[in-house]
Write a structure and sequence with these properties.
This protein is an alpha/beta fold. It has a single domain, classed as Rossmann fold, CATH 3.40.50.980. It is built from 5 helices and 6 strands; from the N terminus they run H-E-E-H-E-H-E-H-E-H-E.
């Protein structure tokens, strides 16, 4: 076990480093696959998450900003997680099964710069934001965050 005294000399791989290494070693191997058959190879996952990370930064987010993600488990969620890590953003997960009042509590306490939600929550989002107005984006059933052009 390494001591904290040597921590300055020890480089720890980031999530982005691990993904890039996997992309180089296994570019066409499936990295993630859902029960419904949606899948991404390591190459696709790295490229799409990089595109999304750049989009988030272009939209005006900065290192350390929080993004609340009210999304179901999906390939797109993995892409968003990796994009946030690459961009230096903090991803705050909001369980997709929560009712609006529960989600509102988490979102209010997180004070996010951006809220991303699935289209299943479209009707609930306006009422839970209150006076806080972060950047927002909704993802429909066939859409992925990496497919969007971001606008403030």
């Amino acid at each position: 076990m390494k001591s904290l005294e040597n921590a300055e000399q020890t480089r720890v791989d980031t999530v982005a480093d691990i993904l890039q290494t996997s992309r180089r070693r296994f570019p066409d191997r499936v990295a993630v696959k859902t029960r419904d058959g949606a899948a991404r190879t390591y190459r696709e996952l790295d490229l799409r998450s990089t595109k999304l990370a750049n989009g988030l930064l272009t939209a005006g987010l900065s290192h350390g900003d929080r993004i609340c993600a009210w999304l179901p488990d999906s390939v797109e969620y993995v892409e968003l997680y990796l994009a946030a890590a690459k961009a230096g953003l903090v991803l705050v997960p909001v369980n997709a099964r929560l009712v609006a009042a529960e989600a509102a509590y988490i979102i209010a306490n997180a004070d996010p710069a951006m809220l991303i939600w699935s289209s299943a929550h479209d009707e609930q989002v306006p009422s839970l934001l209150g006076e806080h107005r972060p950047l927002t984006m909704t993802i429909g059933p066939s859409e992925s965050p990496a497919d969007f052009d971001f606008e403030a």
